[in-house]
Design brief:
201 residues; TIM Barrel; binds iron/sulfur cluster
């Protein structure tokens, strides 16, 4: 099983296959794998994740990214412990690619815990409204997931230096992208329009 893998100049970390969404475009359901066996027979422990990270030459990378085949915040305490250990040993910036439902998953606002540990949050917005989001992302929280992720983005700006909402340019229209830009501005964050190439949230 693959716990860490390289994407561009980043070192990506695959900690779980659990996710509160079941997105129709998720590469988990469309292709076997881009980066090795990202299906986990079992979730690696914090020590195993750190072992995989520290077995690499970390001077090669520009950032460490929690991503993988699943929603990293399903294991928020574990990934923060890993991030803490990485911070103790390197100056590598740390990003979480997320569906933004981490506080809904935990049942409380997790954003204060990110302070001083996470440098960048990239949150998939995907659509310009809650109904469209639920139609393609099938969150276990229903349409409330959309407002939940916006609240998460807003709250996170108090604790994380860089928070961005992202959309994929091939899945929504230019008009929707503009609406998403306004939504991002209302949340006090930037919008990133990206190409669909991987499970990179
Ligand atoms: S694309 Fe991301 S949020 Fe959607 S089901 Fe896959 S891992 Fe979950």
């Amino acid at each position: 099983m693959t716990v860490t893998y390289e994407v561009g100049s980043g070192l990506y970390v695959n900690t779980t296959n659990r996710c509160s969404n079941a997105c129709e475009f998720c590469v988990r359901s469309t292709v076997e794998s881009y980066y090795g066996d990202l299906w986990l027979k079992r979730e690696p422990t914090v020590d195993e994740i750190c072992e995989s990270i520290f077995s690499r030459d970390l001077t090669k990378y520009t950032e460490l990214v929690f991503c993988g085949y699943g929603e990293p915040t399903e294991r928020i305490d574990d990934i923060l412990e890993v991030a803490r250990r990485v911070k103790e040993r390197t100056a590598l910036p740390i990003r979480i690619n997320t569906n933004g439902q981490g506080s809904m998953i935990a049942g409380y606002d997790i954003t204060p815990k990110l302070e001083g540990i996470i440098d960048v949050l990239s949150i998939s917005l995907n659509t310009a409204d809650a109904a469209s989001y639920q139609k393609i992302c099938h969150s276990r929280f229903g349409e409330a997931a959309y407002q939940g992720l916006l609240d998460f983005a807003k709250a996170a700006t108090r604790y994380v230096p860089k928070v961005v909402l992202s959309v994929v340019d091939t899945t929504i229209s230019p008009e929707e992208i503009e609406r998403c830009r306004e939504i991002a501005t209302d949340c006090g964050v930037a919008l990133r329009v990206r190409e669909f190439i991987s499970n990179e949230e």
